[in-house]
Design a protein that fits this description.
By secondary structure, the chain is of the alpha+beta class. The chain has three domains: 81 residues, no CATH class; 89 residues, no CATH class; 269 residues, Jelly Rolls. It is 29% helix and 17% strand. The chain starts with a strand and ends in a 17-residue tail after the last strand. Belongs to the alkB family. This is Fe2OG dioxygenase domain-containing protein.
Length: 506
């Protein structure tokens, strides 16, 4: 093995970036005492030289061949350890650099997916002091979880300053909002987005059997819960923007029908609503307009930031491209606010969805919901909505079962996105050009993180609720074709006192 030559153009080595080779060299160097134990001096030297050749700074032969002398004086194990061992902080970060930590909360795909939020790189370079930013051509240097968390914090602070300067300028056109991006070494945008897409937890097997018009029906069929769609930093940006809209509405800077803040005359009443795309009437108003979309009332168009959210919903296989939302309503809940039992008006097509922010709350379902008191409702089952999640309503879950939101325990914001029936659109409505032709990303949904509870949890997580009054024979027929799992019959009680907890595996 004397006179070994290691080619830097070896196909195996060329498949890795220089930074990755350096990491491998450092790692293997630390393990050399173990790897070379009981080997002869010559073999130890060969292994040592092969490991050292992985570090790009070692070989500088212009023809791509690094000559490794078998007679060279090898470094002692102690010297190698001192020269090559990363410090404790670096080791700690590397130990957390696993596939499920790459950008779970990173904003890379969020920002890059909406170029309108970013200034061109050339403009960034001009606006910064020379030497502060280094433009990087190689896009695939690995980042630790700690690095990404720090990146988010820095970007968050930067955007806060940008937004402050922007809104103090007096303009509020969402199309003009931009923020400066620091150029960093990171994973390619599509890879970052793919990792985040694969980490979304999806539950689509909600079950609650009730007797409806003499038949046993799963009144929750069609419901979907997608958790982890928006990172903590993304949530904060959206919430901050909602507060900006609320402030504008309270100062009369939005159209009259866009912003509504009723006076609180009883517990649970008076939540602030902000509507875009259309004005929806919940009940007969003082002018005699029936519930539904008001065709002769104008509201502000969907803000740019909310369009970015819509693109995420379609791109990540949450809302189908045949049902791209063209309207939305923001609900700002104070503690104790609620939404009474209802089925969404069919002026809106199915499916539609709700995104949750600030705090978790329950949404209660049942074909026969009852009002027990201010903000208290009785129903068959309650589903908790985690912050940053998207809840999709379709099928029986949207049209057979009613739903309501009991008095929320703390401040909450939700944004509901819906597509209007074309025949019900307001007069003069013009579809948003940048929301046309949206398509989901070409990812394999079968490989995404589906909700897969352990057997010991299934009786809770499948949310099988058999309503009283169903005979044993009917229950047997209802169970046919399903897993042999325990079924539970529950008495009606205020649903905000009982809920079936969903545990999403990470």
């Amino acid at each position: 093995m004397k006179g070994i030559q290691t080619r830097t153009d070896d196909p195996f080595v060329l498949s890795y970036q220089p930074s990755e080779l350096q990491i491998a060299a450092e790692f293997l160097t630390n393990w050399l005492p173990f790897l070379t134990k009981d080997l002869c001096h010559h073999c130890t030297q060969v292994v040592s030289d092969r490991v050292r050749s992985l570090d790009p700074v070692v070989g500088d032969d212009v023809h791509g061949i690094v000559e490794l002398s078998g007679d060279a004086e090898p470094l002692s194990s102690e010297e190698k350890f001192v020269n090559s061992t990363p410090n404790h902080h670096e080791l700690h970060e590397e130990s957390h650099d696993t596939h499920d930590n790459y950008d779970t909360n990173s904003l890379g795909s969020w920002k890059d997916g909406a170029n309108e939020w970013s200034e061109p790189i050339s403009e960034v370079s001009k606006s910064e002091t020379t030497g502060q930013l280094d433009t990087v051509d190689t896009p695939s240097v690995r980042m630790s979880w700690a690095d990404m968390a720090q990146e988010e914090l820095e970007e968050e602070e930067e955007e806060e300053q940008t937004n402050k300067q922007y809104w103090e300028g007096g303009s509020h056109s969402g199309e003009e909002v931009g923020m400066r991006l620091k150029v960093r070494q990171t994973l390619p945008r599509d890879q970052r987005e793919y990792i985040r897409f694969m980490n979304v937890q999806r539950k689509k097997d909600f079950i609650c059997l009730e007797r409806v018009k003499g038949k046993i029906v799963n009144v929750l069929d069609g419901l979907e819960l997608h958790a982890g769609v928006f990172s903590a930093v993304e949530q904060k940006r959206i919430v901050d923007f909602v507060y900006v809209l609320q402030d504008m509405g309270s100062k009369g800077k939005l159209k009259a029908r866009t912003y509504t803040a009723p006076q609180k005359w009883m517990r649970g009443k008076g939540r602030v609503t902000i509507q875009f795309g259309c004005c929806y009437n919940y009940a007969m108003d003082k002018n005699g307009n029936p519930p539904g979309i008001l065709r002769n009332e104008l509201v502000d168009p969907i803000p740019h930031l909310f369009k970015v959210i819509i693109r995420r919903l379609v791109g990540w296989h949450i809302i189908p491209p045949s049902c791209v939302p063209d309207s939305c309503i923001v609900n700002i809940y104070e503690e104790g606010d609620c939404i009474p039992p209802h089925i969404d008006n069919h002026d809106f097509v199915r499916p539609f969805c709700t995104v949750s922010f600030l705090s978790e709350c329950n949404i209660v379902f049942g074909s026969n919901l009852k009002i027990m008191g201010p903000g208290e409702f009785s129903g068959s089952t309650a589903i908790p909505l985690p912050v940053g999640s998207v809840f999709v309503l379709n099928g029986n879950g949207a049209d057979v079962s009613k739903h309501c939101v009991p008095a929320v325990p703390s401040k909450r914001i939700s944004i509901t996105f819906r597509k209007m029936d074309e025949a019900k659109r307001p007069a003069g409505f013009v579809p948003e050009p940048d929301l046309q032709g949206l398509q989901p990303l070409p990812y394999d949904m079968d490989k995404s993180n589906r909700f897969n509870p352990s057997k010991s949890q299934r009786q809770i997580n499948r949310q099988m609720v058999i309503k009283e009054g169903i005979s044993v024979k009917e229950r047997w027929f209802a169970d046919r074709g399903t897993r042999s799992e325990p079924r539970y019959s529950t008495h009606q009680q205020p649903a905000n006192r009982r809920r079936d907890r969903l545990n999403f595996d990470t």
